[in-house]
Design a protein that fits this description.
Layout: H1 8-14, H2 16-24, E1 28-29, E2 34-35, H3 44-48, E3 53-57, H4 59-76, E4 80-84, H5 85-90, E5 100-105, H6 111-122, E6 126-131, H7 137-141, E7 144-147, H8 160-180, H9 185-195, H10 198-206, H11 209-217, E8 224-229, H12 234-248, E9 251-256, E10 273-277, H13 284-296, E11 300-306, H14 311-315, E12 318-322, H15 330-348
Helix pairs in contact: 2-8, 2-10, 4-8, 4-12, 10-15, 11-15, 12-15
This protein binds 5-amino-5-deoxy-1-O-phosphono-D-mannitol (M6R).
The site of 5-amino-5-deoxy-1-O-phosphono-D-mannitol has 16 residues, from helix 4 and helix 12.
Active site: 361 (for fru-6p isomerization activity)
EC number: 2.6.1.16
Keywords: Aminotransferase, Cytoplasm, Glutamine amidotransferase, Repeat, Transferase
């Protein structure tokens, strides 16, 4: 049932060409230049008028939520707070009746996320869900929602569920932004058009699989790793670090690249691999300087760059080129090499990637 792949995780990474397609099917139409999300159609007016959105989740779903924050802010100009469900439920959170609470969960069964939903409902907020498992508890508890349609995810490390969650968040933010008038028609249409090219772009990244395996060999003895990104790619750095630590047991941290100076740069020496999401966007020049800072301290830089980038290629130890895309869609592509790097490092270290120690696929106890 692993479809010829050695592990479910690898199969699921490769499935992202079709899973993204399944997530957008019937929802993004390049012909009509329209986004349609049936599950939340009735609450779109509420979203358009929302004073704020609270996004809750755990682990990878929380990282997807972080991308969601940037997306809603950019397209719909709605303030967003992203909360760990476990903290939110035990804090004494301020929840207004006109808040939109958006719970993200692959399994739809995460105990802390469910408890946070109950709290939000008691406070009278509108609660929406983004879940993968159809008929699970969270979709039953929420007022409305959107399924990710990524298909079953068996590997404990979330891969295709993450890209599906980010895809749904992108569609939601685009739709709300367009209806609200904060996302220009031209930009909206550009995004819709680009969406249809994502599966083929992911396929192109996956063709580099063996090169990525080769470069991963260099890092199997590492004891620490840093992941850096800025803007939309900061949450991708967090996700890259989580992927590495949960399956390879190498300690890894994700940071916004500019935060390095405020502490983590002290860790950098010739033994430290630094994985940088550095595709061409608004912060490109800034991330180039961050890479220089790492190199000046002899860190090993492995950078994910836009095809044809020669500037970073001259500075970094390795570059992985990925196809160009719109800035807001870049998380969907840049995360893929990070997934593969973690997978290969873990496999080469002899780890059980599908069932890492101490972890369960769905955390139904707090
Ligand atoms: O099923 P959920 O999305 O609610 O699960 C949340 C986390 O437990 C999950 O994302 C976890 O962090 C994964 N192992 C990450 O790969």
């Amino acid at each position: 049932e692993k479809g010829g792949y050695e592990h479910f995780m690898l199969k699921e990474i490769f499935e992202q060409t079709s899973s993204i397609h399944d997530t957008i099917r019937g929802r993004v139409s390049p012909q009509n230049k329209e986004v349609f999300l049936g599950g939340i159609n009735d609450v779109i007016p509420k979203l358009v008028n929302a004073r704020r959105i609270l996004i809750i989740g755990c682990g990878t779903s929380w990282h997807a939520g972080m991308v969601g924050e940037y997306l809603f802010e950019e397209f719909a100009r709605i303030p967003v707070e992203v909360e760990y469900a476990s903290e939110f439920r035990y804090r004494n959170p301020v929840i207004f009746e006109d808040d939109i609470v958006l719970a993200i969960s692959q399994s739809g069964e995460t105990a802390d996320t469910l408890a946070a939903i109950k709290l939000a409902k008691e406070a009278g907020a509108t609660v929406l869900g983004i879940c993968n498992v159809v008929g699970s508890s969270i979709p039953r508890e929420t007022d409305a929602g959107v399924y990710t349609h990524a298909g079953p995810e068996i590997g404990v490390a979330s891969t295709k569920a993450f890209t599906a969650q980010v895809t749904v968040l992108t569609m939601m933010a685009m739709l709300v932004g367009y209806r609200k008038g904060t996302l220009e028609k031209e930009e909206y249409h550009k995004l819709i058009e680009e969406f249809s090219h994502l599966p083929e772009k992911i396929a192109k990244i996956l063709e580099k699989d063996q090169d990525i395996k080769e470069l991963s060999k260099r890092y199997i003895e590492s004891t620490n790793a840093l992941y850096l990104g800025r803007g939309f790619l900061f949450p991708v750095a967090l996700e890259g670090a989580l992927k590495l630590k949960e399956i390879s047991y190498i300690h890894a941290e994700g940071y916004p690249a500019a935060e390095m100076k405020h502490g983590p740069i002290a860790l950098i020496d010739e033994h430290m691999p630094v994985f940088v999401a550095a595709t061409k966007d608004k912060s490109y020049e800034k991330i180039v300087s961050n890479i220089q800072e790492v190199k000046a301290r002899k860190g090993h830089v492995i950078a994910i760059v836009t095809e044809g980038d020669t500037v970073i290629a001259d500075m970094a130890d390795y570059v992985i080129e990925i196809p160009e895309t719109l800035e807001a869609l870049a998380p969907l592509l840049t995360v893929v090499p990070f997934q593969l790097i973690s997978y290969y490092i873990a496999v080469l270290r002899g780890c059980n990637v599908d069932q890492p120690r101490n972890l369960a696929k769905s955390v139904t106890v707090e």
